[in-house]
Specification:
GO terms for molecular function: tRNA (guanine(37)-N1)-methyltransferase activity. Specifically methylates guanosine-37 in various tRNAs. Belongs to the RNA methyltransferase TrmD family. Its EC number is 2.1.1.228. The strands form three sheets. Strands 2-1-6-5-7 form a five-stranded parallel β-sheet. By secondary structure, it is of the alpha/beta class. It has two domains: about 160 residues, SPOUT methyltransferase, trefoil knot domain (Alpha/beta knot), CATH 3.40.1280.10; about 50 residues, tRNA(m1g37)methyltransferase, domain 2 (Trp Operon Repressor, Chain A, Orthogonal Bundle), CATH 1.10.1270.20. It has seven helices and nine strands, in the order βαβββαβαβαβααββα. The protein is elongated, with a radius of gyration of 22 Å. The longest helix has 19 residues. Bound molecules: 2-(1,2-oxazol-5-yl)phenol. The site of 2-(1,2-oxazol-5-yl)phenol has 13 residues, from strand 5 and helix 5.
Length: about 220
Amino acid sequence: MRIDAVTIFPEYFAPLELSLLGKAKERGILTIGVHDLRSFTTDNHHSVDDTPYGGGAGMVMKPEIWGQALDPLMTPQTDLIILTPAGERFNQRMAEKFANSQHLIFACGRYEGIDARVGQYYASQNFRVHEVSIGDFVLGGGEVASLVMIEAITRLLPGVLGNPESLVEESHAQDGFLEYPSYTKPHTWRGIEVPEILLSGNHAAIAAWRSAQSLKRATERL
Ligand code: 97T
C-alpha cells in the first residue's frame, strides 16, 4: 500500500516512522509520502487560504493550491480521503475497506476547511473521493484524524501486526471489538480477585461469560 498525506504541518506525521509502521516501511509493505501544501504556493506570501465567499468567520483553503498538490499524486488506484467534520463517520468497516486499497491520499484541511470544489472536481474526473470525519468533535485540522485512520487501516495489512491471531479474534467479535474485561496475574491484586470462571479451564463457559460481559457493556453504553 502507498499512503500520501498533504498538509501544511508535515511534522505532525513524524510518528509514522515509529514502531509498527516504521517496520512495515522497512519490510516494503508500506510506502508513505508526506507533502507540504505550502510548497505548491506561487505567491510571495505562500498563502494557502482566503476569506469565505458569502462571509463568515475563518478562512477557507484555496482550491488551486490543492489542485497543484493533488494532480501529480492521483492515479486510477487512488482513494482520496478528505478529512472534514461534515464527512461520513469513520469506523472499523471503513478501515477494512480502505485496507484493501492500493493507494490512499489524506488531504488534511485546516481552518474552516478546503474549498468544496476540490472534492467535487476529483469526483467529476471519476476518482474515488471520500469525505470522512472521525467523530463528533472539532479538531484544529485533519492531521490527527488522518493519523487515527492510518493506524486503524495499516494494522490490518498482512505482515504489519506481529500477531495475526489477534486480527482473527477481532473479526470474530461482533463489529470487531473486544469489549469484555481482561485480567492477568496476580490472581489477587489489592484485594480484588480475578473472576473464578476464567481460572476454570472450561473454554466454552469462558466464551459464554465473555460474550455476556460484552453485551452488558454494549447495552450500558447506549
Ligand atoms: O475538526 C476537523 C477539522 C478539519 C478536518 C477534520 C476535522 C475532524 O475530523 N473528524 C472530526 C473532526
